[in-house]
Structures are given as structure tokens and as C-alpha cells.
Write a structure and sequence with these properties.
single chain, mainly beta, Beta-galactosidase, Chain A, domain 5, Immunoglobulin-like, 3 domains, 4 helices, 44% strand, elongated
Length: 490
């Protein structure tokens, strides 16, 4: 049975696209080029057509444009340097409201490609056969470059056929962040977004997602919009984009990231409810589905694990994780709720935005013997010296557990520290759910390192330094009242 588990990003859920609207297109060119200029039929909504779609890449200090004007390579025309690979894929949502174009660059050389910049260019027309294409205008929404994964450059302009400078600026590698075709000066509109890929090190790849929507759906913090000034025209064309994190950025995030991760296993019961086996399956292609569009893909590793880095602005709504082939099911790599926070400025102590959280919950119930109990009413917990890890957004500190001399009870492993539900704090790696539905981590190993057999007798204490890591969305230290200690009476 091919199982799909849903993940929800808290936020606005967009409305359903009208069935009378749709994005349709023929085959793209070998390098992702499209539009009638490139021999492709591409329609957007009830009245939009695409004249030209293409991508451009600029490398700092290198002329990739040959003898032509400028330095940027037009992907449909110009060769990239040896060792710099490029691939293009596209995904259409099931309601045909959104088309996501994926551009990936890979460094297979032993050198660094420096300060790469990618530009996505779209020149659409609205109701051209009815009222020409000189009565259109552009709008912007949001803030460009708000986060490290957003488009940092943009331009709306007449492309380059009269007085427009858009294509010229793409070729020289710099958009001017301006709208030369506002509603007060309609003309032929073209749009471009620019994304800074930074340095591409050997063995590393970088991907840009560029979304075209006829329902004003967006990803990232910024979008460009094209409309027709004719009040009878209902077509709206919206473009936006975002950059998923690379594997190296996951280890050392340059900006806020959300990570959805899990493990693909065999389903021992393909004719009924999922019955996952214990061993992960390697080499399975897993897709992250947004509005039925597979916006990201990932191959499982040797342990069957996968992960998706999801920029917070990728588009609120319902997400699903799906694997190719039948007979698979999904088990999350706990915690089911996980967010990595980072800042390019280590002195920053607050997040620059409210970060939504991807929930991917497959927690099961746990059974314990009657001797395993919440010991909070007997032992005492103390927290001290908590320090913030800015690179991860976590706080690590000292936990003390004291068994008062008056308790008359020995406590032993398993020692499990439970974290009461809170909108601010959560464990990096909880072991499961306690009988009172509180998530927990097992600190038995740390206790055993302090006292023989992990047995805490009346009058004894243990001090666990850096044994507990807690994630705080507001970067504050946790309080004693948030935690429970569960142990086994001896």
C-alpha cells in the first residue's frame, strides 16, 4: 500500500482554483525554455499566453555570454563552464492553477564557482488577440530578499523591444528592483526574479523553484503580478520563487529553515492498514507534495531516511509526502515537530519572523509497567546555566534531579524527562509519548554515568550537564514547571 501522510503549515490556506481557469503547456525546450518564441504553446488562466520563458545564470567576473552583449548565460542558448551541470524539471498542480519550475545547478568539478546569480524571465501577454498586449501593468507584493532563500532582485518592465531595459539588465547580471509599467503607464509587461546562489563548492548543488500561478498563489516572501487594464479581463499572472536549502546548509543553516524528515519502510500489509517493518529502504524517491505538486524530491539514504528543507514562505496549506512504488509506508524520525533556526548575525536573539511549523505526526502509544510512574511529586528538578546555541536555535544547560531523604523510595531507569505542551519549547529528539501524552526524551544513559545502575537512592542527587537540549522559538531558557520526571520504583 502506498501511504501518504499529510503535513500542515499553520497559516492561511488558499482557496480552490476555479475549474474554468487552467495553466496548459506543451513540452518545454531541452533547457527549460518555453513560450511561443521557443515553439511552445503555454497558456495561463482564461486569457494569458506566454511569449517567452527562459533562465539565465551569471558567475562573478566570468563572461558566459560569448561575443554577445553582457556576461550572463541564457540557458536556452549559452554553454555553462565545464563542471557546472544544469537540470530542469516542471510540475503542474492537479487543479492546474500552479506551475512550479525547478532549476538545479551542480558542481562536479574540483573548483569553486563564485557568486552565482540565477534569473528567471517570463514575458506573458493577457488577452492579446482581443485588446493587444500594450495595455498591461505590473504590481509587486511582499518584500524582496527578506530571507536568505527569497528572490533578492526583481524588475517589471517592457522587455527590451522599445525602451525597456529588462533583458539588457539580465544579461549584465543586475536587476534594478523597479516597476516601469505601473497601472498609470500600461505597456507590454515582462517580469524577472533574481536569486543569489552564492558560491557553489565542489560536489554541491543549488536549486531555485520558480512558481507561475493563475490563482495568485505564491512561495517565498515576494511576488510579481501582471494584470490587464481592461476591466473585462479576469486573468492575473503571479510569479514568485524560493530556494530550498542544500545539504551543507542543513548542517550549518544560513537562515531559518523548517525540516520535514522521516523514514521509508516496507509495509508488511499491503491490503489493509499500514504495518511498517523495522528496516528502512534505501534509494526510494520521496516527493514533497504541495497542492498536489511535487515541489521537492529526495532519495532515501542507507537507513531509509529522507529530509526536506522547507522555506517558511513556500506557501501555507496542506503538504503530503509520497514515495514512488507500492508497498511503502512512512515513519517519522522523531521529533515529529522540528524546526531549525539560525541567523547570519550571531548577536541576533530574536527570530525575524513568525516561523510556521511543519507537523508530521506518527507517534504511537507506549505501554509501561505499573512501576513506571511520574515521580514529580517525589523527586525535585532543577535547571541552571542554560546557554543558547545561535546556530541551531536550541538551549542546552544543566539538569539536576534530587531524591529527597524523606522519600523512602529508590528510583531507577528508564529515566524519562517529559516536556509539557507549549507553543515555545520542544525537544530536539523525543523518545515518544508518556502515558499522560507528554513528549519525552530518555536521560537514562546520562543518569547511569553518574550513579551505579542508574539507581537514585533517597538523599542522592545527579547533575546532568548538557545532557538535555531544548528548542525555543523565542530563544529563552525553559522553566522547571515545564518538565516531568518519570522513573521506575525499585
Amino acid at each position: 500500500m502506498n501511504r501518504i501522510f499529510l503535513a500542515t503549515v499553520f497559516g492561511l490556506i488558499f482557496g480552490t482554483a476555479m475549474m474554468s481557469r487552467a495553466i496548459t503547456f506543451g513540452p518545454f525546450g531541452p533547457n527549460g525554455e518555453g513560450g511561443s518564441k521557443n515553439g511552445q504553446t503555454f497558456t495561463i488562466g482564461p486569457g494569458g499566453t506566454v511569449f517567452e520563458l527562459d533562465g539565465f545564470l551569471e558567475e562573478d567576473g566570468i563572461d558566459l555570454n560569448g561575443s554577445a552583449f553582457g556576461v550572463s548565460a541564457q540557458l536556452s542558448r549559452d554553454a555553462l563552464p565545464a563542471g557546472l551541470g544544469y537540470s530542469f524539471t516542471n510540475y503542474l498542480s492537479s487543479d492546474q492553477a500552479d506551475e512550479v519550475l525547478s532549476y538545479t545547478f551542480t558542481n562536479s568539478s574540483s573548483t569553486v564557482f563564485s557568486n552565482l546569480y540565477f534569473f528567471a524571465f517570463l514575458d506573458p501577454e493577457i488577452d492579446e488577440s482581443i485588446n493587444t498586449f500594450y495595455d498591461e501593468y505590473g504590481l509587486t507584493a511582499g518584500t524582496a530578499g527578506l530571507h536568505g532563500y527569497d528572490a533578492s532582485q526583481w524588475q517589471i518592465d517592457e522587455p527590451d523591444f522599445q525602451n525597456g531595459t529588462l533583458v539588457k539588465n539580465i544579461f549584465i547580471g543586475t536587476l534594478i528592483n523597479s516597476n516601469a509599467v505601473p497601472i498609470s503607464a500600461p505597456n507590454d509587461v515582462a517580469m524577472s526574479l533574481g536569486f543569489s546562489l552564492g558560491n557553489l563548492n565542489p560536489g554541491v548543488d543549488a536549486t531555485v523553484l520558480f512558481q507561475i500561478s493563475e490563482q495568485n498563489h505564491t512561495m517565498g516572501s515576494f511576488s510579481l503580478v501582471q494584470r490587464d487594464i481592461d476591466p473585462n479581463s479576469t486573468t492575473v499572472i503571479t510569479v514568485s520563487g524560493s530556494m530550498p536549502a542544500t545539504s551543507s546548509e542543513l548542517a550549518n543553516p544560513p537562515h531559518e529553515l523548517l525540516v520535514l524528515q522521516g523514514r521509508v519502510v516496507h509495509d508488511a500489509n499491503t491490503n489493509g492498514p499500514a504495518s511498517p517493518t523495522g528496516n528502512g529502504v534505501s534509494g526510494v524517491l520521496v516527493s514533497l507534495m504541495s497542492n498536489s505538486v511535487p515541489v521537492m524530491t529526495n532519495l532515501t539514504d542507507s537507513a531509509g531516511q529522507y529530509h526536506f528543507s522547507v522555506p517558511p514562505g513556500i506557501q501555507a496549506g496542506m503538504y503530503a509526502v509520497a514515495a514512488t512504488g507500492a508497498g511503502y509506508t512512512f515513519v517519522p524520525v522523531l521529533p515529529a515537530q522540528e524546526a531549525y533556526f539560525a541567523s547570519s548575525d550571531p548577536s541576533t536573539n530574536t527570530l525575524p519572523m513568525t516561523v510556521p511549523t511543519l507537523n508530521f505526526d506518527f507517534r504511537g502509544s507506549a505501554s509501561f509497567s505499573q512501576q513506571f510512574e511520574n515521580a514529580n511529586g517525589i523527586v525535585q528538578i532543577g535547571l541552571s546555566a542554560w546557554k543558547l546555541n545561535y546556530a541551531a536555535g536550541s538551549v542546552i544547560g544543566t539538569l539536576s534531579i534530587t531524591n529527597p531523604a524523606t522519600s523512602a523510595v529508590n528510583f531507577g531507569p528508564p529515566w524519562q524527562l517529559g516536556l509539557i505542551s507549549t507553543t515555545n519549547f520542544f525537544f530536539r529528539s523525543p523518545a515518544g509519548v508518556l502515558p499522560d501524552n507528554v513528549t519525552n526524551i530518555d536521560v537514562s544513559t546520562a543518569v547511569n554515568a553518574q550513579i551505579a545502575g542508574g539507581i537514585l537512592a533517597p538523599g542522592q542527587s545527579v547533575v546532568l550537564t548538557n545532557a538535555v537540549e531544548v528548542y525555543s522559538r523565542y530563544r529563552s531558557a525553559p522553566t522547571n514547571s515545564l518538565f516531568e520526571i518519570w522513573a521506575t520504583q525499585q
